[in-house]
Amino acid sequence: MPTLAGIRADAEDGPAAGAWHTALHEAVIAAVAAATVDAARLRRVIGIFGEQVRAFNGQQFHAVLRAAYGVDIFRAEPGLDALCRVWEAENLRLIQSIAPHYLELLEGRVVAAVQQGRTLRTVTREIRDTYGLPRKRAELIAQDQIGKLNGQLTRYRQQNVGIGQYRWRGAMDQRERDAHVEREGRTFDWDKPPGDGHPGHPIRCRCWAEPVLPSLDDLDALIVH
User: Fold this and answer.
1) β-pairing, 72-74 with 208-211?
2) In the chain, where are the structural domains located?
């Protein structure tokens, strides 16, 4: 904002040719640097969320198995750490992209406003109108990525004990996609995903995979009575 005030387009002689654009671009670069969160700290926070989703998913999965078979069923899960590390890396990339993307968009709007000769008051109002965009983007990433991780964990855990199929289940409310409503109760193979992916994979998908359980003898796991 201080930079914008210094190059405002409503000055009598107008902004100096070219100089205002350089000043604005440098201000945007400085803003990106100021808005960038330390990667190590951010990775730790993402890891905490990942562990919470992982623990909740595990509790739900074992509760379903115990309810169905009446015994505790366990198996080593060596692939979970790698799955979660990939998820954490993707989230780190997405979150770190918010500030540069938002400020690049903002810079384009300000450049257009200055070129069009809009007043400082008008441009300031337009900038403030965009303040909510990064928060909305962050909320979308959080909701989407938690659903994706839960879906990936569900697939891994089911296949890990020998469950090859699931029934599509959804919230079945007004927010449900028509395609997902149509899939409700249908059986799918884990090795043959629908066009937009398994439950939890599409953006902000709230659906889940209800396991098609084989007989207890067919499970590839340790059974504890």
Assistant:
1) unpaired
2) 2-163
pLDDT tens, position by position, 129-170: 888 888 899 999 999 999 999 999 999 999 999 999 999 999
**Polymer length in residues for the chain:** 225
> Under DSSP, is residue 201 helix (H, G, I), strand (E, B) or coil?
coil
Per-residue pLDDT reduced to its tens digit, 12-25: 444 555 677 888 88
Q: Which helix (H) or strand (E) holds 169?
A: strand 165-169
Q: Give per-residue pLDDT as tens, 49-72.
A: 999 999 999 999 999 999 999 999
Comparing CA positions, the residue from 139, 141, 154 lying closest to residue 188 is 154
How crowded is residue 83: how many other Cβ atoms within 10 Å of its Cβ? 17
Compute how many other C-beta atoms are within 10 angstroms of the C-beta atom of residue 52. Answer: 11
